[in-house]
Amino acid sequence: MRARLKGIVAAICVLGGIAVGTVAYWAFREWQVERSGFHSPEITGSLTFAPALVVGFAVAYSIGRWLARVRTGAWITGLARRHEVPRERLEEVARMVERL
Question: What is the pTM (predicted TM-score) of this model?
Answer without folding.
Answer: 0.72
